[in-house]
Specification:
Elements lengths: L6 H13 L5 H8 L7 H13 L3 E6 L2 E6 L3 H14 L4 H11 L2 H15 L23 H6 L15 H6 L11
Antiparallel strand pairs: 1-2
Helix pairs in contact: 2-3
Length: about 180
């Protein structure tokens, strides 16, 4: 499981994820300097650390490097949530508590994600575009049924890509965005 990013690492990765292309230290520096005073060498060190941790890959361009994200922000968030959930001694109760904290928009995003999984769709989920809204279900949602023990959990093994593995082994990972 990846460790949570530090504040400066997150600020740098936010730009790398947002721009979704190889970036230079100078580009990240100039954007960060709009919010804070920061040195070129600090940004260079953060990007080098992110490379060492497997968050970004880099390619030499002259005497500098261009850095590109190994995985998406969505995969990072999913890995953090999965790690937190797996640490619980009562995963069903943790999910019920988590669902109770969700906003209406987050619950709708969950319904949309469950619909995509249920329908076996390969529908891309954009972090900026809103997913289509399905009709409201007449019954309890699947996570509620599972949390209350009325529906058996599915086998988690082989359920899909492992964002953690993608970040630990950049050579075998694919980039977000289908490229």
């Amino acid at each position: 499981m990846p460790r949570p990013l530090g504040e400066l690492e997150d600020a740098v990765m936010t730009r790398v994820w947002k721009w979704n292309r190889p970036v230079t230290v100078r580009e990240v520096l100039e954007d960060l300097q709009q919010e804070r005073s920061i040195a070129y060498t600090t940004v260079m060190t953060v990007l080098d650390n992110l490379h060492q941790k497997g968050w970004v890959r880099r390619e030499a361009e002259g005497r500098a490097y261009r850095y590109e994200a190994v995985s998406t922000r969505a995969a990072y968030a999913a890995a953090l949530m999965n790690d937190a959930w797996s640490q619980s001694d009562n995963p069903a109760a943790a999910l019920v508590a988590f669902f109770g904290m969700m906003s209406d928009e987050q619950r709708q995003a969950l319904r949309d994600a469950l619909r995509i999984i249920r329908d076996g769709g390969e529908e891309p989920v954009s972090e900026t575009a809103e997913a289509p809204r399905p009709a409201e279900p007449a019954e309890r949602t699947e996570p509620q049924e599972r949390a209350q023990g009325t529906q058996p959990p599915e086998d988690a093994e082989g359920a899909g890509p492992n964002p953690e593995g993608a970040q630990q082994n950049p050579d075998s990972a694919t980039r977000g965005g289908g490229r």
